[in-house]
Amino acid sequence: MGVRLAQCGVAVREDCRHYSTRTVASGEVVQRCRVDANETAPFACPENCLFFEPRSITDAGWQRFDRDDEPGE
Fold it and tell me: Cys staple from 44: which of 20, 39, 68, 70, with CB 3.0 to 4.6 Å?
């Protein structure tokens, strides 16, 4: 078993490439860290996280549609 260090949670780093979020069928938003470095309740990134990497792409130029607003309808 590894030793878990005490961490101080900070705001969620949505600009980290390891952060992901999705909405499940019940409408609840699920947040997760792909390398499991986060505090669990409440979800928070550790201060000065060693795994932080900025996202390499952005949503620039992408369009998001709700199912009711899909093009061609």
Answer: 39
Nearest in space to 16 (alpha carbons), one of 61, 42, 39, 46? 46
Is residue 25, in this structure, part of any structural domain at all?
Answer: yes
pTM: 0.57
| Number of folded domains that form the chain | 1
pLDDT over threshold 90, residue 6: no
Domain housing 35? 7-54
Compute φ and ψ for 69, nearest 5 degrees: -110, 20
DSSP 8-state class, residue 3: P
Helix (H/G/I), strand (E/B), else coil: 56: coil
